[in-house]
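Hello forum,

I keep getting stuck at the same step: I have a sequence, I want structure tokens, and every attempt I make locally crashes halfway through. Rather than fight my setup again tonight, could one of you with a working pipeline run this one for me? It's a single chain of 166 residues.
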Amino acid sequence: MESLLISSVKTPIGRLSVISKEDILLAAGFGEPSRLKSGLAEQDRKLGFKTVRNISGITDLISDYFSGDLLALEKISERQIGGEFSQRAWRAMRRTKAGKTISYSQLAAKAGSPNAVRAAGSACANNLIAIVVPCHRIVKTGGALGNYAYGLKAKDWLLRHEGALQ
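Reply #2:
Ran it on my machine without issues. Output:
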């Protein structure tokens, strides 16, 4: 049985911890990986963890994104546990291109439930794969940033990096 891989990437807004099962990204977040570990599926956590310097096909692409290749994250395969609506919302987030933002209500509509705006916000809050499943691209109606698990300074930086904010 193969262990899950843990690595980290130095970024302009802090260290991004990443956890993968082979070449499938399971979690990514700023700071220590302990919060990420607890959000994983139990069958994945049972595999154990091995810290590595790089995760082939993942950490280099994340570095490329922070170096200016805004399309690099689209090449990363990922999966996370969550209900049907969250899965649809996360797919809709991935279809939101770098440099663009959508509102929570637009996200709800794109996920197939236009009235589920609060559920769209919950999908963002429960997203375990920061930047790759780009919940930072979801903003309030009218353009206010809304919330972000890693702070509004990080969300602002990411949106400016992508050209969504001037």
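The mean pLDDT is 96. If your local run keeps crashing, start a new thread with the error log.
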